[in-house]
Structures are given as C-alpha cells and as structure tokens.
Amino acid sequence: MIIIMKMNATQEQIDTVKTRVEELGLETHLSSGEERTIIGIVGDKSRVVEDNFIRMTGVERVMPVSRPFKLASRDFHPKNTIVNVKGVEVGGEQIVVMAGPCSVESREQIFEIAHAVKEAGATMLRGGAFKPRTSPYSFQGMGEEGLKLLAEVREATGLPIVTEVMAPADLPLIEQYADVLQIGARNTQNYALLKAVGRSRLPVLLKRGMMSTIEELLMSAEYILAYGNENVMLCERGIRTFETYTRNTLDINAVPVLKELTHLPVVVDPSHAAGKWSLVGSGSLAGVAAGADALIIEVHNHPERAVSDGAQSLKPHRFAELMQQIKGVAAAVGRNV
Predict the structure, then answer these.
(1) Do 25 and 101 reside in the same domain of the chain?
(2) Assigned domain for 73 exists
C-alpha cells in the first residue's frame, strides 16, 4: 500500500502520517520526488484502515499495491535508483561497462586485463575469487589471495571491483576487498545469502537465475531491500531454454519489462548468455538498445588458456573494438558511455 501526499504537503504533515503508520507496527519507506512524496507501507495491511489516512491533513489518496514485490516496485519508488560505486553511477545517463576475467588466475593476468579494459573505456573491473562450478573438480577460484590481487589492481587502475560472494560465511572477508557484491545465478534464491548481503554496506549485483521468472528475480531483490540495502542492480544473464546453440537464451525483453516494473538499475551479461565470444558483441549492443544501464563482459588476455569460461571471453583488442560500437548505439538511444 502507498500513501500519496498532496503537492503542497508540509514536512510536518508527512512526518505525522509516517508516525501514525509506524504506530501500527508497520514499516515506512519514503520516496520524495520534485512534486510530491510517496509513503510506502510494508507489513500486515489488515491493521490499516484506508479512510483513517485519507482524512489526515496533507494526504491526497491511498492506493493498494497488488504486486508481491513492494520495495522494488516503481509504485513505491517512481524515480530511478542510481547506485553509486566509488563515484561510478549505475542507473543514470551513462551506460557503465564492467569488464574482466571470469576468474582471477595470477597477478600478471589480472593486471594485464585490468589495464587493457580501462584503456578501452570500461569503468569497473569484474573478477571472481570464489567460483561456483558445476563440477566439484573444476577450478574454484584463488580465494583470499585472489581478493588481495583485485584490491591491488584497484589501487593501480582506480577501477572499482565486482566480485562474487557464495556464502554468508564468506561475506566479512569479501567486504574487506570488494566494491560490489555479485550474487550469481545459482544463488539467486539462496535466501540466507540474500539476507546477509541485505545487511551489507556494499552495493549488490543480483543475477537472474537460469530458470527464474522476472517476478522471482524481483522477489529476490526484495529480500535484499527488505534487510536494509537499497543499492541493488538486477542482471539479466540468459535463461535456460530448449535452445542448444547458445549457452543460455538472452531474454532481451526482460530489460524493458524490468525498467517498467522497477526503479532498480538493469545490467545485461551477454557473455554468460551467449557462451561464445563471437556472439557477445551482438548481445551487448542489443542490451544497450533495449535500455540496459550497464553491461558486464568477460575479457581474457589468453582465453584459450583460461581456467574458466574461456570460450565466451573476448580478447582485449576485440573488447576495445566492441566498446566503440557500444558508444555508437548508446548515442543513438540518447545515452553515453
């Protein structure tokens, strides 16, 4: 439920309504626009008598919110949320490009890639130190040593770090090094982990599960928001379908749908959707044209020797060429990179 205040409502009137809602044991979330304030109500709505609030001074109307996701909904928060990561704004006019290897493999590797993607125009560095793998025998990441290398390369390049967290127990360690906490597709509905990152001070990049609906993705975001972390970015990374010529099927329609439903920034991951480096460019351009706020792209200096996801990784020179194409499409839709 939301309470929409009148255009001329005073701060005292807003505070009075907010206090009354909280006296009923419910939570309030304020969204202040240029013209009016919206007070979102979260909790047991059976305690709310709409007419009592309509009669309060400064209230224009009371509206129910039928969607199960409240805090993520545009009904609660009409304006776009802009997530600020060390000065890089995701969700604004600029399209942010996060790039880097699937996994940190060595100091030489991560430094070479980081400098290359920065020179090409990327503004954030992605790199995994802990990797969830289908096979227990596959490379699982360098752990804390990988995190230390990411922190070192951040100091050298100024690129904020995006890295994955797999379990609540790992969070305190990763928070010491990371700038963005990535929740991978396999953990989209790991509610203990969602609650943990919801209590974190760091922004969260939440990937859509490979068999999750859009609503399920938004409900996962709702967990993070409900536990206090308002800096959530949603990532479309392809879903599992009957098609076998790509690793996953990039749901490009999810981008405009999410932009309609939620105020949270939308990120597209063309690398995991395609599974083949030759298709990553097309997916990137399609994501920008569809309205994505950011891209997250895998880049490796020697993909033929990569310990994970080499087949979908762009070489640095190909990434640089793609960045020029991205700038062209961004300009065509009124954005910049």
Answers:
(1) no
(2) no
Contact 120, 316 (CB under 8 A): yes
Q: What is the pLDDT of residues 120-150, one digit of tens each?
A: 999 999 999 876 655 554 555 688 899 999 9
Q: CATH number for the domain including 45? A: 3.30.70.1140
Residue 139 and residue 44 in one domain: no
Based on the domain organization, do 156 and 301 belong to the same domain?
Answer: yes
Q: How many domains does the chain have?
A: 2
Amino acid at 39: I
- Whether residue 4 contacts residue 58, with contact meaning beta carbons closer than 8 Å, is answered with no
**Angstrom distance (rounded) from CA 336 to CA 158:** 20
Asked whether residue 33 falls in the same domain as residue 104, the answer is: no
Q: Is the separation of the CB atoms in 267 and 301 below 8 Å?
A: no
pTM over 0.85: yes
Q: Of 274, 292, 158, which Cα lies nearest the Cα of 235? A: 292
Report how far apart, in Å, the C-alpha atoms of 258 and of each of 16, 73, 86, 214 are.
33, 10, 25, 8
The pLDDT tens digits of the residues spanning 300-324 come to 999 999 998 899 999 999 999 999 9
**Residue where one domain finishes, among candidates 35, 63, 91:** 63
Place of tokens 């949270």: 264
Task: Tell me the CA distances in angstroms from 306 to 54, 101, 231, one per residue in order.
Answer: 62, 9, 32
- The whole domain housing 16 covers 2-63
Query: How far is it, in rounded angstroms, from Cα 233 to Cα 250?
Result: 17
Q: Mind listing the pLDDT tens digit for each residue in 248-264?
A: 999 999 999 999 999 99
